[in-house]
Amino acid sequence: MTQPQRVESLSHAQRERLAFIDFRLYFFGEIGRPDLIERFGVAPAGATRDLALYREIAPQNITFDGSNKIYRIGQAFSPLFEHASQRVLSALALGFGDGVHGPSAKPLQPLLPCESPTALSNPKMDVLAPVCRAIHAKRPLAIRYHSMSSGESERVIVPFALVDTGLRWHVRAFDRKSGEFRDFVVTRIEAPTLLDEEPQPFERPDNDIQWTRIVELDLVPHPRLARPEIIKMDYGMEGGSIRMRVRAAVAGYMLLRWSVDCSPDHRLKEEQYRLALSDPLALYGVENAKLAPGYQAPAAKTFRKG
Predict the structure, then answer these.
(1) Can you tell me the distance from the alpha carbon of 132 to that of 162, in angstroms, rounded to the nearest whole number?
(2) How many CA atoms lie within 13 A of 37 on its CB side?
(3) Which residues form the WYL domain (predicted)?
(4) Alpha carbons 156 and 174: distance in angstroms, whole number
(5) Disulfide-capable partner of 289 in 21, 181, 262, 283 (CB 3.0 to 4.6 Å)?
């Protein structure tokens, strides 16, 4: 049986514990029985069996330091599991856990010294939970909403997706009041109530043109920079650019979050603009393109009669 087949034959709980061993070796260079006991609540004998099983499957990855009674990373280490960068960074910054803690439980701690920007906008769980239930059940949701343009109003929306803009969370939904698909900021929602009815066909996400349309964006180092090769390193650019395919409904948020100069002549000179949109015309027809730094809608052409 090959190594991948051996791993796949294990139970889900065993794979989780072996993935944790793999993680600790990869990013900390060592693991001991107490690490497994604390993380999973297993007995000492169970932790010993897990370490022995990992050593049996990937002997090149792990060595035992008898004098210190700890397992260390092997010189020929090759990860047994795939470790997605966002999950790894989240674990390092926030600690491991499923987010469910009793009133007396200790808060999760970073695994390494790590500072992250403080989130200034956090949805309330008693609002987010019914929004999520409505998305899952494909049901309309009655809400009280506070809009910057029209103030407080009662609405019925048909939500189908959450959107993280990097600054706050939105829910994408059909709005029965305006008859359009729109973004609703979760922190501005109050008193959400699920309605026991089916959405109309025109309220479903496959009719949301901005959601279903995929926009292709080519991001390049900003032309004003003297050392574009460093920006290529920062973003892991291949072929000198980042080619992205994103939903039109989120394109403006993404370009704003990453401070991408979307002006026609890339004239934004401030320090935060390290990237530029190669072809601003790629945003033609994108409703939230107005959020993109420097973006200008193409001027309408006029034609003279001959």
Answers:
(1) 8
(2) 9
(3) 127-193
(4) 9
(5) 283
Whether 108 and 91 have beta carbons less than 8 Å apart is answered as: no
Tell me the Ramachandran region of residue 46: left when phi exceeds 0, alpha when psi lies from -120 to 50, beta otherwise. Answer: alpha
Range with the poorest average pLDDT among 62-76, 107-121, 276-290: 107-121
Which residue, 82, 22, 15, is CA-closest to 58? Answer: 22
Q: pLDDT tens digits, residue range 143-202?
A: 999 999 889 999 999 999 999 998 899 999 999 999 999 999 999 999 999 999 999 999
Whether 183 maps to a domain, the answer reads: yes
d(CA 146, CA 186): 10
Residue 94 lies in a domain: no
- Domain span at residue 63 reads 3-73
DSSP letter (8 states) at residue 241: B
Nearest alpha carbon to residue 186 among 141, 238, 233, 221 = 141
Cβ proximity of 60 and 24 under 8 Å:
no
Q: In CATH, what number is assigned to the domain containing residue 54? A: 1.10.10
Enter the tokens of residue 83.
Answer: 């470790």
Question: How many helices and strands (H and E) does the chain possess?
Answer: 9, 12
Please compute, for residue 41, the number of CA atoms within 13 A of its CA located in the half-sphere on the CB side: 2
